[in-house]
Design brief:
- The protein has about 425 residues and is α/β, with parallel strands linked by helices.
- Among the domains are: about 150 residues, Type I PLP-dependent aspartate aminotransferase-like (Major domain) (Aspartate Aminotransferase, domain 2, 3-Layer(aba) Sandwich), CATH 3.40.640; about 80 residues, no CATH class.
- The strands form three sheets. The chain has a seven-stranded mixed beta sheet, with helices on both faces. The protein has a three-stranded antiparallel beta sheet with strand order 10-11-12. A two-stranded antiparallel sheet has the order 6-7.
- A hairpin with a 2-residue loop joins strand 6 and strand 7.
- GO terms for molecular function: pyridoxal phosphate binding; transaminase activity.
- Pfam families: DegT_DnrJ_EryC1 (PF01041).
């Protein structure tokens, strides 16, 4: 049986009026993928990778250089488009090991994929120059980095193509984009979502918002509607109701009862040409970009300061440079297995990018990637986190890592 404890605070941005009317509305917009002159909205960022490869046309040169630190959503589109992933090393700061990348290039190499891990932009000028020298196409993977600039270069401008995941930065449950500052994308043909797909995009967003009480006076009404919807879906599918976590009869469940759900990247090759929903485009267009940027940086800084004195861990990025807009707060754990279940069971949302590396990658390809796959936990720092939620997460982290005893109560009890 699989049991995933409920997350007491939202893992990703939540829809509410503040998302559209943030206090920084009217401030200068930061650099973002929205600035690209060529845009192709899609359903998910992984689909944008497939579309970029299709637009390039791999032909006889099918090898795609990808980082050894990766997730399935980066590899599966390559395989679906007939590409062959070749893995290069990263350095401890997650930047490209260009010397290793050069060693792995062959006459069959056509594409280089470079992600901006966790929103911290890679310095890509040297990589861009190397790609130009060897007639290689550079895809800038901005799934973790919708905003920002480094080396004076705005996000997305160094790649021939850039892909983004709008749902990771905006209050949505789906959405991505393929953009380019260099190549027109008008030859890419996508299909519009059906009416049911459009409605699903809206319903999923509102349901997630109601889960965390973000719909104000309408919250109770929507919760009842969504409970009824879930009941009807279960009846139609003849599914039994959700079961309690597995534990001995009469005993309270413990962190040891936690069994992670099977990993799924979310990539579906049948949906490669599915365009982004009108809802996702509207929310992205109406959201206050400066509010998103300021709140994410502020929340990251709060988590960074709180982690300084925590034992058994250290921040992957101990400094937040100007121009960087984080996706999450990555924390390197000394003993990940000892704390993971406790944090999850307490209701803390944890993201594990790269937890499952592609099983056909040769062991020892990149020791840093293999180490980070096990030891880096990512915690939310998005703009929708309320102050009491952020403080609660910090208190739980402290209690678990210091072994100080009882955990703080559910954050709702501390809501203003």
């Amino acid at each position: 049986m699989t049991f995933t404890p409920p997350e007491h605070i939202p893992k990703q941005p939540v829809f509410d009026l503040l998302a559209l009317t943030g206090s920084s509305k009217g401030s200068p917009s930061p650099p973002s993928l929205r600035d690209a002159p060529y845009q192709c909205p899609v359903n998910r960022g992984s689909l944008a990778i497939a579309l970029a490869l299709r637009h390039i046309g791999l032909s006889g040169r099918k090898e795609v250089l990808v980082p050894a630190y990766h997730c399935g959503a980066m590899i599966e589109p390559i395989l679906a488009e007939g590409g062959i992933p070749i893995f290069y090393r990263i350095r401890a700061d997650t930047t490209v090991d260009l010397e290793d990348m050069a060693r792995r290039r062959t006459p069959a190499t056509r594409v280089v994929l470079v992600p901006h891990f966790f929103g911290f932009l890679q310095p890509l000028q040297a990589v861009r120059a190397w790609c130009d020298a060897h007639d290689l196409i550079l895809i800038e993977d901005c799934a973790h980095a919708f905003f920002g600039e480094t080396e004076g270069c705005p996000v997305g401008t160094q790649g021939d193509y850039a892909i983004g995941s709008t749902w990771k930065f905006f209050p949505l449950n789906e959405g991505g984009c393929l953009v380019s500052f260099r190549h027109p994308l008008n030859t890419i043909k996508t299909r519009a979502p059906s009416l049911s797909e459009e409605l699903k995009a809206v319903v999923n967003t509102l349901e997630y918002a109601s889960t965390y009480g973000r719909l104000g006076s309408f919250n109770a009404l929507f919760k009842n509607i969504f409970h009824l919807k879930d009941w009807l879906v279960q009846r139609l599918r003849s599914e039994p109701p959700s079961l309690a976590p597995p534990h001995k009869s009469g005993d309270a469940p413990t962190p040891e009862d936690f069994v992670p759900a099977p990993f799924h990247s979310g990539f579906d090759p049948k949906r490669t040409t599915l365009s982004g929903s009108l809802w996702a485009r509207w929310v992205t267009e109406k959201s206050s970009l400066s509010f998103i940027v300021e709140k994410r940086r502020e929340n990251y800084q709060t988590l960074l300061e709180a982690s300084v004195n925590l034992p058994g861990c250290h921040p992957l990025f101990p400094h937040l440079p100007e121009g960087i807009v984080p996706h999450v707060f990555p924390l390197v754990m000394d003993q990940p297995l000892a704390v993971f279940g406790k944090l999850k069971f307490a209701g803390v949302p944890i993201i594990r990018f790269g937890e499952f590396l592609w099983d056909k990658m040769e062991k020892g390809t990149c020791p840093i990637s293999e180490d980070y796959s096990r030891r880096i936990f990512q915690f939310p720092c998005h703009q929708s986190l309320q102050k009491h939620e952020l403080n609660w997460m910090i208190q739980v982290l402290s209690a678990v890592l210091t072994g100080s005893g009882s955990l703080p109560s559910h954050p709702d009890q501390h809501a203003p």
